[in-house]
Amino acid sequence: MIRQKPKTETSYEVKDIYVLEGLEPVRKRPAMYIGSTGPDGLHHLIWECVDNSLDEAIAGYAKNIEVSLLPGD
């Protein structure tokens, strides 16, 4: 027989909900957008930059693509 966890009552009201503006949601929960905040996430971000740049170049909107990874925050 499988034991089930006891249900806990949680509730929230409208006053408990707030909307994040602009880039605030990305800064607050980056893993939600890129999947990871570790090396895999960095790899994904670089991949997206290169992939999107290639799309623009193929469409004729760019001749050169340059991606720089700089130290820092």
Describe the structure.
The protein is mainly alpha-helical and 73 residues long. The protein has a domain at 26-58. Helices cover 41% and strands 0% of the residues. It contains three helices and no strands. The chain has helices spanning 24-28, 30-34, 39-58. The protein is elongated, with a radius of gyration of 20 Å.
How is this fold's topology laid out?
Blueprint: H1 24-28, H2 30-34, H3 39-58
Catalytic activity: ATP-dependent breakage, passage and rejoining of double-stranded DNA
EC number: 5.6.2.2
Family: Belongs to the type II topoisomerase GyrB family.
Distance between the termini: 51 Å
Helix-strand string: HHH
Q: What is the strand tally?
A: 0
Average pLDDT, all residues: 89
- Structural class by secondary-structure content: mainly alpha
Rg, nearest Å: 20 Å
Strand content range? under 5%
Helix fraction, binned, reads 40-55%
Low-confidence stretches: none
Protein name: DNA topoisomerase (ATP-hydrolyzing)
GO molecular function: ATP binding; DNA binding; DNA topoisomerase type II (double strand cut, ATP-hydrolyzing) activity
Catalytic activity: ATP-dependent breakage, passage and rejoining of double-stranded DNA
Enzyme class: isomerase
Task: Give a quick set of tags describing it.
about 70 residues, mainly alpha
Question: How would you concisely characterize the structure shown here?
Answer:
The chain has 73 residues and is mostly helical. The protein is 41% helix and 0% strand. The chain has a domain of 33 residues.
